What does this fold into?
Amino acid sequence: MLREYAGPLLGRGSVVAVSETALAILQGRFVRPERVRPGPLARFLARFVSRTGSLSSPFALQLVMQEHGRARVALAFLVGVITRLLLGRSGDLYRIAGPQASLVDDVTGTLPPYDKHIVLGPKDPQRVVEEIRRRTGSEAAVIDANDLGGVSIVAATRGVNRAHLREVFRTNPWGNGDEQTPILILRYSTSSAPPPRLRGLAS
Amino acid sequence: MEAVLGSVTGVLAAALLYAAFLSWQGDADIVLQVENAQPRNLTVSDGQARFELAVPLFNRGKQDGMVLEFLVRPGFVGQLKGRARIRAGAVWGEDDEGSGYWRAALLRRREALPARVFLEVQLHTGDPARDRLPAALPRIPLAIYFEFVGRKQIEWRLAELVLNPSDFVGVGAGT
It folds into this structure.
């Protein structure tokens, strides 16, 4: 697919950035909530997540439990509550529960036709970026970015300058609306790293 | 004995506390306010009338809710049976007008979204009433079934709406 849509832009000196949601959808990692049966633990724990988080849905939480195990997720909740109350630290729940906890998108979190689906994070993203590099010669990264300035590099090949990539995606050139941009190619004006500036962005 | 009593009391207290928390937290509670339905548009062309109503979907609950599906179908159409082709649907975004796709909608608590319910009636060629649409049409009942999900569970709700063509007098683009 990359060759078909971005063939002439690929090769040494460019970085292929792939949206984590687009990759997950390509891997078939989406499911309608009607097909998920949340267990008592998911129903119980989801009650304690802020309503803006995807894990506040027992359906999304159940899927994360199926990925990482109920015990691990339950432990993450326990530690998360303790460190938040005692140390005032947030985010331990997502750090301990496993990568899917922060990557999962609840319904309405993705564009149509997947707006009625829960979309999990991609499977084996590191393997995917290595494969892209092997086949195209480009460095590659899987990125989760949003319009609020949040950037998470889910996986990247060794040649990727992560700090620079984070800076580029802080303004979210993909967009969170109807832009529907699954791939972004970064090409640098010189082959030296770190690159001084971007020459062009293409999707 | 005291230990047993203490344990039972503890369990009961925890259960009561959790029940109180659930009650305080609440859930999404989305209703279709059919009583506030407003005629929005009427177009008549070549024996076909298209009626469009704005009907508020309102989240009166304490939590956000997401409306995943919104299905509309005409009820029994009485005298129109066999004389007309009838199609009903709903959208909420301008972009989806052509396709009729119901895009999943996030409704924050106390937020309303105007669902645009439409009904198209096409009378068969030769029907004497074709020239005086929509005055020739009777009241048409619509059954609306919508699905939403909140914090707790997926819920389907039924709402009933009666489309009265006479309410559309002076509304929209006309013939």
Remarks:
- The CA atoms of residues 37 and 59 of chain A lie 7 Å apart.
- The longest strand of chain A covers residues 139-145.
- Chain A has two domains: 2-27+122-202, 30-119.
- The interface with chain B takes residues 33-34, 43, 46-47, 51-52, 56-59, 106-108, 112, 115-116, 178 of chain A (CB under 8 Å).
